[in-house]
Amino acid sequence: MEALGNVATAMSFPFRLLHLRAPGRRHLRPRVCFCVGKDDDVTNLFAGPRQIKLEGQNVDILEESFSPSDRRLEMSNTDIWKLFNDAQQNILYLNKQRLAAVEELKKLQREKELLLERIEQLEAGKQTNIVEGTVTKPVLLSSFSELLLRIDSMVLSGMIGPREASDFRKKVMDSKDNIHDVFHDIQQKTDMELLSELHQFSEKTMRKALHIVHICSEMEPVVSFGSLASYVTGLSCALQRKGNLVEVILPKYANMDLDAIQGLRKTEAEFDSYFSGCWHKNRVWIGVAGGIGLTLIEPLYHSSFFNRDRIYGYSDDFERFTYFSRASMDYLVKSGKQPDILHIHNWETAIIGPLFWDIFVHQGLGGTRVLFTCHDLSSQGGIVYSNKVVMMSSILSKERIIHSLSHGLEPTLAIHKEKLLIAPYGFDGTKWDPSRDKLLPANYSADDIGGKAVCKVALRQRLGFSGHSSAIVGCIYSGVSDINVDNLKPAIQHALREGVQFVFMGLKAPVRSTTVQALQDELKDVNMRLINKYDEALLHLILAGSDIILCSSFDDPLLQIPLKAIKYGSSPISLNIRNGGARQFEGHDFRSISRKEGFRQSEWHDFASMMSTQYIISTFGDMSLCQALDEIKNDPSSWTWRIKDGMSKDFSWDAECVDIHWAAYTFTKNL
């Protein structure tokens, strides 16, 4: 700024112009002009000798006095103003940049303060729970400490030993940050309940994901005939939700629902499989069904094997599924898949057992193990050549199956008894849950069952029932079932006189049950309805709006009605609809008992082999329809406790069923 001031002063006063002259040469015009002030002193730009280097030459600085009248100015006023204006613009620009930098600095400072404030809030959030403006105890720290103290309590009470307690403490410490997400309401749980959760938590931390391949003949909803379809889909989805990789291989039937397969496409490559002394070409289709990877095998030469109206029921069924079983194994080898578990099902794929150990274990599948599931031992196959055998039943024990339902396989089963496991059926917990069922007019749960009353009103309106009733009883049966009127009619007549309303619905549409229709025509009661057309939404409403669900059996592999009824707060009452009422259970005659429709708990001791079985038998196995109606009327508090207790249980595929299968898989894999 001082230099600019001197420039302005020099415009009104005489000044000296500096000339640059090289020794012995002509004068050179300088590239820079230096101005002097009133005292005629050059501004302090040269402190040393008056010689500068210009364009690589040494030049002398000469001073020559002159006045404006003696010589034309070498720098005009216009040039001076231009320099002044340029300098001023540069200063303004620099000042603007400085202000912008200051604002940016302030902004960064504010962001830093906000970040520090947010960090403080997060730290506070880890220590406290903010609920409606009030601060509760430090939740995370409290859960962690409470859990460790409860482990100590279990040791002191003798529930667990010091070594197991040490293992629990280590796993809890390793998962300290996630404890609150895993263990809820610790203080409200008993030591036994908490110990069960600790065991599950311990198992999950030790689990290693497995690759499981099902080779089977059915999978819901792609192709469904019996209980196998829902079992394969339900178990596969539950296993995959737990972090495992699950795939399914099916034949490509002509009558399967291809619309249920996402991204279905034909692969370019074909593969050969061996059958009846020759190699035959097969085409492969791939897609996804219910989140599960699906492979369809289509024979080219034997195209008629699965290009039929039905899945089963042909004279060459054995040849058809033998071809599919061998083709599936050839496909696994040629595709390079090396699953941990090969899961085969029923007689249709039981032959894979001997094929695997005789041929394919030596073709890259040395680390694979075989698990065989049979839903009916009448299929009689796969037991000897499988590492583990799972029998599906919700109520039968291992001893009962071996001695009463072995269909001539008792000696074989006795030898391989240690292989045999019993697993219960389940249902899709994402679909059948009243707390999130979108088909219900109101949702409810074990903690708040108020919505069930709303569903009951909606059901009455839907069925055209008028007035109030003491209870609603639903009866869900398959289209192939037939009701024994002689045993059912007296119970219904008694209930109707007590103001109970009944609704019957079959699940194989269209339902044409002449027996039920004849019963309705005979009773001619306004409080009885027969639904001849299957309705998915109505089925959900019947389960939610009914107090009691009459079931053909507690062991219901196809529909799982008893388990769904419990989840929806409707008590299942078993009446053997087809063969003589409740005096019989799945073909097994029980000794005469005092209650015409009930079962004594003492008759069930051999069945209670699983948690679900124990609960069903202890809670509903000794209850008749008349007893249930009497409890609703005279002891409503006990009834409410009963249904809420049932609703809190988990009978889905994700519960006991998947746990038993996981234990079988891990045991088999470690052989």
From TrEMBL:
Residues 98-125 form a coiled coil. Keywords: Coiled coil, Glycosyltransferase, Starch biosynthesis, Transferase. Residues 211-383 form the Starch synthase catalytic domain. The keyword Membrane does not apply. Pfam families: Glyco_transf_5. Pathway: Glycan biosynthesis; starch biosynthesis. GO terms for biological process: starch biosynthetic process. Transmembrane segments: none annotated. This is starch synthase. It comes from Elaeis guineensis var. tenera. The lineage of its organism: Eukaryota, Viridiplantae, Streptophyta, Embryophyta, Tracheophyta.
